[in-house]
Amino acid sequence: MSKIFKSFSLTTLGTRAAVVVGAAMLSTTIYASASPPLASEVQAAKASKISLQQAINIAAKKSSGLLMSASFDHDDDKAQGGLYEMEFITSSRNYEIKVDATTGKVISTDVDRLDSDDMADYKALKQAKIDIKQAVKIAEKQTGGRVIEIEFKNDRDYSDHASYYEADILKGNSIVWLNVDANTGSVFKNKFKK
Fold first, then answer.
1. Which of 6, 36, 134, 194 qualifies as a FRET site for 74, CA 20 to 30 Å off?
2. Which secondary-structure segment (H or E) carries 147?
3. Which whole-number Å values give the CA distances from 110 to 40, 63, 172, in the listed order?
4. Is 100 helix (H, G, I), strand (E, B) or coil?
5. How far apart are CA 96 and CA 108, in angstroms?
6. How far apart are CA 26 and CA 101, in angstroms?
7. How far does the chain reach from its first CA to its final CA, in angstroms?
């Protein structure tokens, strides 16, 4: 009976060791694969010749409505040095405009009809006291960095902030994430993006 117990203990111990080693290898792989995209995004954003603000001004000439979001995309195959993607919204249409982050040229323009969720977002954005350009200035002043992505949110994730802007800011070699209340301009929930 003791031989069976010893054999069982060794088998159980070996299985546990294999699980621990396997989990360590998996977590190392996940960590290693998660780090390079962020590093390459930081590197590409630093190298971009066109700022988010400039891209917004370029895109605004090709659309109408309110700016809902603007973001930097470092790995889009349409632009070697990355591109900015802006979304403008009207009471009936959604405009998506892509601007090359190196040259400032408009790469594409898409127009779609709004669905019911977009209509609710448009109404909330129209009532916001702080627009996206003001939110960019607030976020940059708060962090001392450069906004590379900002989006209007009307999802009630925060009880004290019904509508807000979620911003990613390039600061040094990291990306800082914070929110700006769309009615008061107050900044909340500031942390480093992983």
1. 134
2. strand 146-153
3. 27, 10, 33
4. strand
5. 8
6. 35
7. 52
